[in-house]
Design brief:
It comes from Penicilliopsis zonata CBS 506.65. Keywords: Membrane, Transmembrane, Transmembrane helix, Transport. This protein has 474 residues and is an all-alpha fold. Helix content is 80%, strand content 0%. The chain has a single domain (38-222, 248-466), classed as MFS general substrate transporter like domains (Growth Hormone, Chain: A, Up-down Bundle). Helix 3 (92-102) runs antiparallel to helix 16. The longest helix is centred in the N-terminal third of the chain and has 68 residues, at 2-69.
């Protein structure tokens, strides 16, 4: 009888516990939406102006820059585009060390303002060497933005809430940047001779806009979850976020120091280079489209200048839908690798259509598929790596290394898309296809390796990341 009398009480406690969990989950989702509205749009805007200021050389080239600075002679185009990535690669890790010490709002505001002034200055150069020197500075200042944004997003969201946000951050910024090409076409009309001097107004106006945004950022961007500056959340909401992040990751991660030991740990971890190479492939494709698609549309597809500007937008818009669907499903199903493999295959199909088909319409369809593939590849690998890293300092280091390899991808793009291969750039497109094929193979290898590691942990033969309950996301 005693046992019979206790059972209803146990059921009541269980039901009450379930109700508490459901209520907390609902409250947490409300807080996430609040974070989304405050954090993601600002980071999208910053990423968009970052993309615009690094890649507007492509639209400037078809607006008189080549003739004004004799940029199309010899290998000058390659040099001017290449030097950006040298400092971009070098300053990634130092910047992520600074963002934790200074705070994201202050640090990102500073670097955005600085590169806005540099971009504005490009509108006044009169030699290709001057343009190259300014792009060296541009790379140094822009180096901190993407790894800082990736670090900040991964710090605020649980592991299986992050890919949707990363996809929005990346894809919406690319689309917004593509839409500014229409603005660029309008800006060149300001010049007395738009086809020869219009390019200067692209840099002057867009650089001034970037500097103005940078001046406002310290007052509107949120800091890390442990910062007292985050007044947009109540004390109860902040405690809920920290509690859920701790439950998701095992222990509290805040304010870990970036040490030499952790740098060495990342440098000797094979997963570092597998994730980094896959990200590099997507970044290489993205930079290829940003830097060379306007020239391909104008000179290879034989479209008019106005049409070349306008046709940059539809593939970027379509890429949001083609890449967001896998991002949502990957978060829902708690998997990453199969979608990364699929995005690599999609990119290969689209790029091959661009390189080997003869009809301009068919090749333009290939642009849609190719852009969606490489954009989805970038966001998928970002989330896959973020899911498999534990610890605040490790997250800062690994994300910076990943973006460094993205810079190497951009460097690679400037070298394989050679001026002598214009206007179709077939060798450069084939090089990106080869990297996508390698990424497809590496994603399979990585999935098998992570599955093997999880099974060893299940059998008690190893502990992943020093956390008994931690398992890799496959």
């Amino acid at each position: 009888m005693g046992a019979t009398e206790i059972e209803p009480e146990a059921e009541s406690v269980s039901a009450h516990s379930g109700e508490n969990e459901a209520a907390e989950e609902a409250a947490f989702q409300r807080v996430l939406r609040k974070i989304d509205l405050r954090l993601v749009p600002i980071l999208v805007l910053l990423h968009a102006v970052c993309i615009v200021d690094r890649s507007n050389i492509s639209v400037a080239r078809i607006s008189g820059l080549d003739d004004a600075l004799q940029l199309d002679q010899g290998n000058r185009v390659s040099i001017v585009t290449l030097v950006f990535f040298v400092t971009f690669i070098v300053f990634d890790i130092p910047s992520n060390m600074a963002v934790r010490r200074v705070g994201p709002a202050r640090w990102m505001g500073l670097i955005v303002f600085a590169w806005g002034i540099v971009s504005l200055g490009m509108g006044f150069v009169h030699s290709w060497t001057g343009m190259a020197a300014l792009r060296v500075l541009l790379g140094a200042f822009e180096a901190g933005l993407i790894p800082g944004c990736l670090y900040l997003i991964s710090a605020w969201y649980p592991r299986y809430e992050v890919q949707k946000r990363l996809a929005l951050f990346y894809l919406c910024a690319l689309t917004l940047a593509a839409c500014t090409n229409i603005l660029s076409y309008g800006l060149i009309q300001i010049a007395a001779h738009p086809t020869t001097g219009g390019w200067r107004w692209i840099y002057i106006v867009q650089g001034a806009i970037t500097a103005a945004i940078g001046a406002v950022i310290p007052f509107v961007l949120v800091d890390f979850p442990d910062s007292p500056r985050n007044t947009f959340l109540t004390a109860e909401e902040t405690a809920l976020v920290r509690r859920r992040l701790e439950a998701d990751r095992g222990v509290t991660e805040n304010a870990e120091a970036i040490t030499l030991a952790r740098l060495v740990e990342a440098a000797v971890d094979p997963k570092t280079y597998l994730f980094a190479f896959m990200y590099m492939t997507g970044a290489m494709g993205t930079y290829s489209f940003n830097l060379f698609l306007p020239v391909i549309l104008r000179n290879s597809f034989d479209f008019s200048e106005a049409l070349s500007f306008g046709l940059l937008v539809p593939p970027a818009v379509m890429a949001i839908f083609l890449a967001m669907i896998p991002a949502v499903l990957a978060d829902r199903w708690h998997i990453r690798g199969p979608f990364v493999s699929a995005q690599a295959l999609l990119a290969i199909v689209g790029l091959c259509m661009m390189a080997f088909l003869s009809s301009p319409v068919s090749r333009y369809v290939g642009v849609f598929l190719g852009e969606a593939g490489v954009y989805g590849l970038v966001t998928g690998v970002m989330a896959w790596q973020a899911n498999n890293i534990h610890g605040d300092a490790r997250r800062a280091i690994y994300s910076a290394i990943q973006i460094m390899f993205g810079g190497i991808g951009g460097l690679f793009a400037t070298l394989v898309f050679r001026q002598q291969d214009a206007p179709k750039y077939v060798p450069g497109i084939v090089a990106v296809v080869a990297c996508c094929g390698t990424t497809f193979a590496l994603s399979i290898v990585l999935m098998l390796g992570l599955r093997w590691a999880n099974r060893r942990a299940d059998r008690g033969k190893s502990i992943i990341n020093g956390l008994p309950g931690f398992r890799y996301t496959i």
